[in-house]
Amino acid sequence: MKTLAVTALSRSFGGVRAVDGVSFAVAPGEMLALIGPNGAGKSTCFNLLNGQLRPDTGTVHLGGRDITGLSPRRIARHGVGRTFQITATFASMTARENVQLALLAHHRQIWRFLRPAPQHHAREADALLAQVGMAEQADRAAAILAYGDLKRLELAIALAAAPRLLLMDEPTAGMAPAERTALMALTRDLANQRQMAVLFTEHDMDVVFGIADRILVLDRGRLVAEGTPETIRANPAVRAIYLGTGATTGGH
Amino acid sequence: MLSTLLVQLLTGLSGASSLFLVSAGLTVIFGVTRVVNFSHGSLYMLGAYTGWSILSRLPREPLPFILGVLLTVAALALLGALLERLLLRRIYAAPELLQLLFTFGVVLVVQDATQAIWGPNDLPLPRGRWLRSFVEIGDARVPLYDLILIAIGPAVLAALWLLLTRTRWGTLIRAATQDREMVAALGVDQKRLFTSVFALGAGLAGLAGALSLPDGSANLQMDLSIITDAFVVVVVGGLGSVPGAFLASILIGVLQAFGIVVLPQATLVLVFVIMAAVLVVRPNGLLGRPQAIRENPASTTLIRPAEPALRWLGLAALILAAAAPLFVGPFLLSVLTEMAVAMLFAAALHFMMGPGGMASFGHAAWFGLGAYAAALAVKGLALPMTAGLLIAPLLAGTAAALFGWFVVRLSGVYLAMLTLAFAQIVWAVMFQAVDLTGGDNGILGVWPAQWATDRLVFYWLTLALCTAATLVLRTILYAPFGYALRGARDSELRAAAIGLDATRLRHAAFTIAGAAAGLAGSLAAFSKGSVFPGFIAISRSVDALLMVLLGGVQSMAGPIVGAIAYTGLFDLLLLATDQWRAVLGLSIIVLVLAFPQGIAGTAHRLWLRGKEA
Questions:
Q1: Pair B56, B175 in one domain
Q2: Which domain holds residue B66?
Q3: In chain A, what is the straight-line distance between the N-terminal and C-terminal CA atoms, in Å?
Q4: In the structure, what pLDDT confidence band is assigned to residue A29 with cuts at 50, 70 and 90?
Q5: Are residue B257 and residue B338 in the same domain, yes or no?
Q6: Can you give the pLDDT at residue B140?
Q7: Which residues of A touch chain B, with CB atoms under 8 Å apart?
Q8: Shortest CA distance to B173 belongs to which of B152, B192, B154?
Q9: Which pLDDT value is given to residue A244?
Q10: Residue A224 placed within a domain
Q11: Cβ proximity of B37 and B29 under 8 Å
Q12: Which of B299, B303, B497 sits opposite A72 (nearest CB)?
């Protein structure tokens, strides 16, 4: 069964159809990239999946269960992990505590009032940090971590909930090229090991074509192409959108 | 019957008019400068006093009256501009809470200055015949002056609307309300814009103050009583929206006028219920715009349990405090008792304000509710003291849970203003419910149980309970719940992404903080032997805020140190001078000017200099 199945998703803002009848699916362990020029509807599409926005029509199913229109919190509870374009971590805690809090939330142990939080799941948190190569940074404050390390910390936080699907919004934005490849290679390994589906948006085409199993191309809210990197590379419609022949993106 | 309704409606509308004048100024100033100006009520009060000085010297005819009112408006506009140039300009970059605190410092100074200039007595304005005349509408007699006031509200709204939409200056104000940075980037002289907006707002407050004279008097209570209503109006109408303020003033004004006829006891509660209802349906007020989500920038300090050295110091202080009665006199013992109570009160506020990220400006509400609950339990129900000490946190916690249900859905200044308004309403209820609470006379003879009447025993009991409760709060903060609460403060986005329910966490924190403050209040009641509405006064809420800010929001030890230092200094101040308001107000002003990023924040940075966080 597909991890994520999206059917005929649409959302308009005023008269603009930002996302227009988009359908696709992601399989376990698969990495699917969502690309398109600025204003193509990538962010809207992403926000419809993560609960930030509600779709006008269409459905989102996760592992066969309908999660359409749920809040971000509920969607997280159903096994969707996230990383953000601008990293969001708990700045007043250490890296380890960040992961520990995510583990506590996952195990529904938040409403405990006695034993200190740092005494919960410490070993599990360290194991997760080790998986993303952050073992040595475990005791450092999230507020002072380098940007690339924050990205990896976010990954460890997301993994704490053992997600079936990982949504990554511009995962390599703001990183140096070498770091980008390393982060995405790491994600690739994690997806394989855990049979975790990954859906990501990305501007860096080297990353997209080097890492993704399949690619979705959006233009003006519509899905214009879908396929492996090779077929997308060869697709004339995609070339037209990105290179601009004037035929498809010209006058209105 | 119909005529009674009409008279009430007109009374309500005339009340709404002056409420609108004050609120419009407050909301315009907020819209442009992003400062919630607590001292706006002081400008209103100064308008009344200035108006009194001018009008009582003029002939009691309509034309001199108008002239006198216009002179007052000009004087207040000038004063407002001065206030902005000399003081407020310096704190635009400071955190919201410090701005609110700063302008409260101005309130205190203005109170003492006004009393020094005009004396402590109410100053009624001798009214000319025309001000006392009535107009017959049907079979009802309506005061002419009410009708004039009713006309002034819409007239000012229309004038403001023309000013805001038809002049370049108005366009700039509207632009700055929407996007201050953009207006600055376009090369507009922000300083002049801000000063002029402040002058406009102060002029409106002065107008309202002067116009309030024929129906009342200039008195020293009017600043805080109007500012509470104005906060409610501005929050209900939507921060920054002038038409919203107009709608909300009419809503609140009419409601108050009818409430007094129908359900005199419940008017204040009714105002609050309306406010709650509006905010549940429209969290940004009737005509307000949503505020941008702010990821909390102030919370970047790593929170660690106290270092061993500090723990030993704390233990030593506790032993010293426990042994103190053996070698200090009764006065110092009462100061020590006060310190213990203050410690728990401040720790309770810190609980929701630091890790919870909810700055309350009305924490005295829970303190006072606890004190009254304990007093009524022993005096009214003749229960033993222990039952009183148990009921107090339960009742305060329950009230906090009810009120918190919708407050935790707000944030930032909205939350601060609402908690303040709620505390004022609790204050007014205690003040008015004379049968139950004795009103201004309070409840006397709230003494501890037989076994604890000895000052020494009671001190030890207080110290033990306050220390224990503070330690419980600390334990909760380091437990998973506390971490989750702090997580929701650090990053809303991330908290939701790992499945945390920020609203529920905050609601629980709000309730716990209320219960802890209630316990502190009940201990204060037994230690003083009496309870007064003053237990809920704004100044008590501000006391707690100052303690937390003095000690530092970022550590659990902060509020404890802050409470001890503040109580000690304040008692010294009371011994030294009658003008404690002015001294305290000036201290607040100087402290915020010297440390615009927070006293504790600055100290913390100095402490950490050279160390990695």
A1: yes
A2: 2-281
A3: 41
A4: very high
A5: no
A6: 80
A7: 71-73, 76-77, 81-82, 84, 88-94, 97, 100-102, 104-106, 109-118, 120, 141, 143-144, 157-158, 160-161
A8: B192
A9: 67
A10: yes
A11: yes
A12: B497
User: What pairs with residue A141 in β-bridges?
Assistant: A94
Q: Which residue of A has its CA nearest to B505?
A: A111
Q: A174 to chain B, minimum CA–CA distance in Å?
A: 19
Q: Report chain B residues whose CB lies below 8 A from the CB of A141.
A: 302, 613
Beta bridge partners of A227: A215
Q: Which domain holds residue A28?
A: 1-70+197-252
Is B483 part of the contact surface with chain A (CB cutoff 8 Å)? yes
Whether B219 and B352 map to the same domain: the answer is no
- In this structure, the answer to whether residues B39 and B170 fall within a common structural domain is yes
Give the one of A72, A81, A141 whose C-beta lies nearest to B496's C-beta.
A72
Contact B544, B349 (CB under 8 A): yes
C-beta atoms of A84 and B494 within 8 A = yes
Flag the least confident range among A31-35, A193-197, A241-245, B500-504. A241-245
For residue A236, give how far its alpha carbon lies from the nearest alpha carbon of chain B (Å): 38
At B354-367, the pLDDT tens digits run 899 998 889 999 99
pLDDT of residue A9: 95
Query: Which residue of chain B has the CA closest to A87?
Result: B494
Q: How far apart are CA B440 and CA B431, in angstroms?
A: 6
pLDDT tens for each residue of B274-308: 887 887 788 788 888 776 544 444 456 788 887 78
Whether B311 maps to a domain, the answer reads no
* pLDDT score recorded for residue A219: 92
Which of B538, B555, B590 terminates a domain? The answer is: B538
DSSP secondary structure of chain A: --SEEEEEEEEEETTEEEEEEEEEEE-TT-EEEEE-STTSSHHHHHHHHHTSS--SEEEEEETTEE-TT--HHHHHHTTEEEE-SS----TTSBHHHHHHHHHHHHTT--S--SS-GGGSSHHHHHHHHHHTT-GGGTTSBGGGS-HHHHHHHHHHHHHTT--SEEEEESTTTT--HHHHHHHHHHHHHHHHHHT-EEEEE-S-HHHHHHH-SEEEEEETTEEEEEE-HHHHHH-HHHHHHHH--STTTS--
Task: Judge whether B591 lies within some domain.
Answer: no
Could you give the number of structural domains in chain B? 2
Residues B110 and B230 in one domain: yes
Residues of chain A in contact with residue B478, where contact means CB-CB under 8 angstroms, are 116-118
Predicted confidence (pLDDT) at residue B132 exceeds the cutoff of 70: yes
Of A100, A113, A141, the CB nearest to B302: A141
Distance (Å, whole) CA B158 – CA A218: 50
A39-43, A149-153, B500-504: least confidently modelled range: A39-43
Q: What is the mean pLDDT of chain A?
A: 92
Residues of A in contact with B293 (CB under 8 A): none
* CATH for A60: 3.40.50.300
* Nearest neighbour of A94 by CB, restricted to B302, B499, B505: B302
Q: Which of A100, A111, A114 sits opposite B475 (nearest CB)?
A: A114
User: What's the gap in Å between the CA of B19 and the closest CA on chain A?
Assistant: 38
Query: Would you say residue B309 has pLDDT above 60?
Result: yes
If asked whether residues B195 and B87 sit together in one domain, one would say yes
Q: How far apart are CA B205 and CA B198, in angstroms?
A: 11
In this predicted model, what pLDDT tens digit does every residue of B554-594 receive, in sequence order? Answer: 777 888 888 988 898 888 888 888 888 899 899 888 888 88
d(CA A158, CA A105): 11
Q: Test B303 with A109 for CB contact under 8 angstroms.
A: no
Inter-chain touch A117–B501, beta carbons under 8 Å: no
In the three-class reduction of DSSP (H, G, I as helix; E, B as strand; rest coil), residue B152 is classed as helix
Contacts of B491 in chain A (CB under 8 A): 88-91
CB contact under 8 A, B480 and A120: yes
User: Which pair of structure tokens corresponds to residue B429?
Assistant: 């209820």
